[in-house]
Amino acid sequence: MPDKPTTFVNPQELKNLSLDELQQLAGEVRRFLIDSVSKTGGHIGANLGTVELTLALHYVFDSPRDKLIWDTGHQGYTHKVVSGRADLFSSLNTYGGMNRFVSRSESRHDIIEASHAGTSLSVGMGLALANRLQKKDHYVIPIIGDGALCEGMALEALNHLGAERDLKLIVLLNDNGFAISPGYGALHDYLQSRQLNSRDPETLFTSLGFHYIGPVDGHDLETLVQALQQARDSHRVPLVHAKTVKGKGLEAADSHPYRMHFSFPFDPQTGQAMESSGSSSVGYQDVASAVIER
């Protein structure tokens, strides 16, 4: 197991870093994730795309007072590192080990059980409305991917949130063009048409009442921090649209059809599965089919 980099910090210490130091930390976290997950297996591509995004969130907001809600729980590995769980990564994908997803039983920084739900906007809206009734002033930030944004509960929440004002909730859209496989559909096509530094007016989210910010480069920490700070001061519900690259920093992901979404233990240079992976265990699907065939 690789040594944990000495510059790993907790959420409070993170805020004392300069942007240059934060960028250096992003590189170290990315190398740590590749080294670790290549040994244990796990959601590597999904997490390499959210390194800078996660660091920016913890830099601007105050978790766990501010609530980060990961819609797709397997994008929370950097969040786990920052919140004190780097030492648990050697237990990933083992019985009783660190969860592949975010889990309330694991940390006070995780407030829901989440994997592939599409519920973050609805959960976040409920929390933010309750906070307003109780006159609490902390923020709720749901992080939702473009693949989950088209789900029914997400669209219902967008319908409600666009009509709200002075609600301390920020929608962070992590747009990498993928769900597990490449994205598909009208909403996917619309998001893909929105290019970085575009001067064309945004029409979909602004017409629904959101304060749209983006698209921003989801790997540029300075841009991300500025966008989140701008969102924090908005009177309308802001939607920060961040363009990210699934599998960023792992060369083997560039030629993979799902950009190394999930992998068993693998060679970090080639991306090829290790010969021993899976040889001492039986997959759930194999057990299920054996039971059905009886």
Describe the secondary structure blueprint for this structure.
Elements: H1 11-14, H2 19-40, H3 44-48, H4 51-60, E1 67-70, H5 77-85, H6 120-133, E2 140-145, H7 152-161, E3 171-175, H8 186-193, H9 204-207, E4 211-217, H10 221-232, E5 238-243, H11 284-293
Parallel strand pairs: 1-2, 2-3, 3-5, 4-5
Task: Provide keyphrases for this structure.
37% helix; alpha/beta; five-stranded parallel beta sheet
Write a concise synopsis of the structure shown.
The chain has 294 residues and is α/β, with parallel strands linked by helices. The chain has 11 helices and 5 strands; from the N terminus they run ααααβααβαβααβαβα. It has helices at 11-14, 19-40, 44-48, 51-60, 77-85, 120-133, 152-161, 186-193, 204-207, 221-232, 284-293; strands at 67-70, 140-145, 171-175, 211-217, 238-243.
